[in-house]
Amino acid sequence: MPMAVSRQAGFTIVEVTLFLAITGMLFLIAVLGTGNTIRNVRFTDSGRSLESFIQKQYDDIINGVNTRDNQISCTSGTISTSTSQEVGTSNCLLMGKLIVFWQNNSNISYYDVIGTEPSTVNYAQTDEDLITSFRPKAVTASESKYSVTWGAYPSGFKRLSDSSATNALLLVRSPKSTRIVSYTFKIAATVPEDLTSTVSTEANQSQETNFCIKSADGLTVPARLYISGGSSQSSASIIFDASESDCDGV
Asked: What is the pLDDT along the chain (250 residues), one digit of tens a residue?
């Protein structure tokens, strides 16, 4: 009786090719999915960190945090970096912070804001008028920088009242209370030292404003740092639903 011929099972070239193609596709999907997740997590951290930085400025102003060292002097609103002066002996009043967002630049500039009490002053007037009478100035000689994390950057700005591309946020504490008045306005290139005209302009005062940021690769939906115009740290919040129209101030 003839012996049966044994056949060994195996895969055809077509089957092997299909297996490799499907495996490669699944691997690619997994890699792309992981990349998107990492990108989104990093951008969320960028937005939350920026929000925390701005909220800290409100806190520092209310608590009177003074960053001046004794190598800088201030007399009647004039800053000098060539003379020394013990901290606490100046007749200048620390009033707030000026924060400037530069478009397409991860580095945000910020400065202390000082003022000087007039020889005669009416403390019964509004906070806004009182701030103006103290003639606030930005200490441009002592610029500090905050870098938005993971390379995210400001991509556009918009003050909602008039669609102006206001890229500067000025926070000033009233000399008669703990109330912080916010001002948003536009800085083209040079940061002004004298802010009197800025605070005396009603259109700049306590306005809702968006400061938008994009991820380093520009692939995610922009986020907007929303300033409500209020007087506490809750007035600054990051919102991850920005559209181009939220950031298209001119």
From this structure: 555 555 556 667 776 677 777 776 766 655 555 568 888 999 999 999 999 999 999 999 999 887 766 666 777 667 777 787 786 677 788 999 999 999 999 999 999 999 999 989 999 999 999 999 999 999 998 899 999 999 999 999 999 999 999 999 999 999 999 899 999 999 999 999 999 999 999 999 999 999 999 999 988 899 999 999 999 999 999 999 899 899 999 9
Q: In the numeric block, which tokens belong to residue 79?
A: 């800053």
Domain boundaries, the chain: 13-65+92-246
Task: Give the span between the Cα atoms of 4 and 162, in whole angstroms.
Answer: 91
**CA dist 224 to 159, 233, 237, 247, Å?**
12, 16, 8, 8
**C-alpha closest to that of 168 among 75, 96, 86, 65:** 96
Tell me the whole-structure pTM to 2 decimals.
0.83
Residue that has been written with the tokens 């099972």 in this structure: 9
198 and 183 Cβ atoms separated by less than 8 Å:
yes
Tell me which H or E stretch contains 180: strand 180-185
Classified as helix, coil or strand, 156 is strand
For residue 238, which of 222, 223, 219, 217 has the smallest C-alpha distance? 223
Euclidean distance between CA atoms 177 and 95, whole angstroms: 11
Scanning the structure block, which residue is given the tokens 């909220």? 55
Cβ–Cβ under 8 Å, residues 96 and 137: no
Q: Residue 187, CB half-sphere, CA atoms under 13 Å: how many?
A: 24
Distance in angstroms (rounded) separating the CA atoms of residues 60 and 62: 6
DSSP 100-117: EPPTT-SEEEEEEEEE--
